[in-house]
Amino acid sequence: MTVRRARISGCGAYLPARQVTNDELALSVDTSDEWIVQRTGIKSRHLAAEDELTSDMALASARLALEQAGLDPADLDLIVLATTTPDNTFPATAVRVQAELGMNNGMAFDVQAVCSGFVYALAVANNFIITGQAQNALVIGAEAFSRILDWEDRSTCVLFGDGAGSVVLRADEGRGTSDDRGVLSTHLHSDGRYQDALYVDGGVGATGTIGHVRMQGREVFRFAVNKLAEVVDEALDANGLTAKDVRWLVPHQANRRIIDAMAKKLDLPPERVVYTVERHANTSAASIPLALAEVAADGRVEEGDLLLLEAMGGGFTWGSALVRW
Ligand code: UT7
Fold first, then answer.
1. Number of folded domains in the chain?
2. Which candidate among 160, 212, 299, 310 keeps its CA 20 to 30 Å from the CA of 154?
3. CATH code at position 151
4. Catalytic residue chosen out of the listed positions 46, 187, 252, 280
5. How far is the CA of 218 from the centre of ligand 1 (A)?
6. How far is the CA of 282 from the centre of ligand 1 (A)?
7. Whether residue 256 has its Cβ less than 6 Å from ligand 1
């Protein structure tokens, strides 16, 4: 018996040209390179230019992913774009990308799950493919997070960066076993009781202003470590796999200490963990596809490798995906 699988066939990354170090931030807020590195592992981040929008970054990464997949935009029938920082309240940033690519068929829409956005978008696109409603999907995580930061709040402004990453998913056939190439499973969760621990204090309904990120860092940290551990086990159990089968941990990049805790739980050495947090900081929905594009480009990941993706963000939302490369 064969089953439909969604296989990753191309990745693309885009980072804005401007890189800002911790020392540079310390010129305008009361912080230090030492504090930021020690508490988060972040050394620098890329920030979008004034005229650079989420859709611009998304488009740049999408073009690279399509090229790597050897697909034309006309071959796509689905775009799912994860972002918390859309160009406009509407239309969806995904339809901007659709128009710029010259893809006039199929469907394009945004998904909003903050830092878990890419895992959510991947799950949505995977479900469209495995149910036969799409053949070729573009899944994008793109953020201009710098636009919603309070640049006077040192507890948040040092943590985030901008960027975009894309992956192309193509329908393929598998045997329905964990040896199949492609997305093996996705597990998503949310718990709205925690909405006040990490949120933006603005919005069309709330204030009519864009607002700024507000976060109870310690609470988020604690929740992330606990729930990510659970959702990682959930993914492995569902596929009859163990931590030993995981070749690469590709985590959301919020804080090196959270990633290290997850690597320790899985007993994975640092060389099997994809770290970009040092150079990118937390790019929210863009962090996982940026990390994937990096390991795809440098050849670290080989055919047949098992990748474990996990993320947690505002909402709270969290989730995992197991992907065989
Ligand atoms: O991607 C979405 C999910 N987000 C996350 O996963 C973030 C999770 N949380 C974290 O990564 C960490 O909680 C932070 C990095 C945000 C903070 O680290 P922490 O070890 O939890 O520090 P803290 O918030 O408990 O603050 C410790 C001290 C405080 O000073 P007092 O009250 O002890 O005197 C803060 O005011 O550090 C101070 N502080 C800073 N000092 C220098 C906070 N931010 C800064 C800063 N520079 N940028």
1. 1
2. 310
3. 3.40.47.10
4. 252
5. 7
6. 14
7. no
pLDDT per position as a tens digit, 93-111 = 999 999 999 999 999 999 9
Query: What pTM was estimated for this model as a whole?
Result: 0.98
What confidence tier does 1 reach under pLDDT thresholds 50, 70, 90? Answer: confident
What would the two tokens of residue 195 be? 């909405």
Range of the domain at 315: 1-325
Q: Is 104 among the catalytic positions?
A: no
Output the six-digit token pair for 163: 């960027």
